[in-house]
């Protein structure tokens, strides 16, 4: 064990990772105060300060936007001229939209029909 109380595990290539043994009954029985105290006791997962939070960049929730428009991934990609794989990657968190894509998504979010007409 390290001095922070965490255990480091070395996994040989090609071997499965060990399974954890979380006592979920104990976790569910914890009060909100106990959960907060346990979270704050982890030196590697401290809450962000207001200044740190203010500096964070908020990303659009593409899946919620697409769902609100009543579109499948394929329809959304085709309508707004986006590669289907890109839409899937954004929704699954594998990649993030770049600046031009963020601008397009903001327009789609506010004026979806105008964006559709402009792209047709």
Q: Describe the global form.
A: elongated
Corresponding CATH architecture of the domain at 62-119:
Orthogonal Bundle
Helix percentage range: 40-55%
The assembly state of the depicted protein chains is single chain
Fourth-tier CATH superfamily name of the domain at 62-119: lambda repressor-like DNA-binding domains
List keywords for this structure.
mainly alpha, 120 residues, 434 Repressor (Amino-terminal Domain)
Write up what this structure looks like.
Helix 5 (73-79) crosses helix 6 (84-91). This protein has 120 residues and is mainly α. The longest helix has 12 residues, at 99-110. The relative contact order is 0.08. The chain contains eight helices and no strands. It has a domain at 62-119: Orthogonal Bundle (434 Repressor (Amino-terminal Domain)). The N and C termini lie far apart (60 Å). The mean pLDDT is 88.
């Amino acid at each position: 064990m390290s001095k922070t109380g965490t255990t480091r595990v070395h996994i040989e290539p090609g071997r499965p990772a060990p399974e954890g043994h979380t006592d979920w009954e104990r976790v569910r029985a914890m009060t909100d105060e106990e959960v907060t105290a346990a979270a704050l006791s982890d030196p590697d997962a401290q809450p962000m300060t207001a200044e740190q939070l203010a500096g964070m960049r908020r990303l659009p929730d593409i899946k919620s936007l697409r769902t609100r428009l009543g579109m499948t991934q394929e329809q959304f990609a085709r309508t707004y001229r986006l590669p289907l794989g890109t839409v899937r990657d954004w929704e699954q968190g594998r990649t993030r939209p770049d600046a031009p894509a963020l601008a397009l998504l903001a327009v789609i979010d506010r004026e979806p029909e105008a964006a559709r007409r402009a792209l047709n």
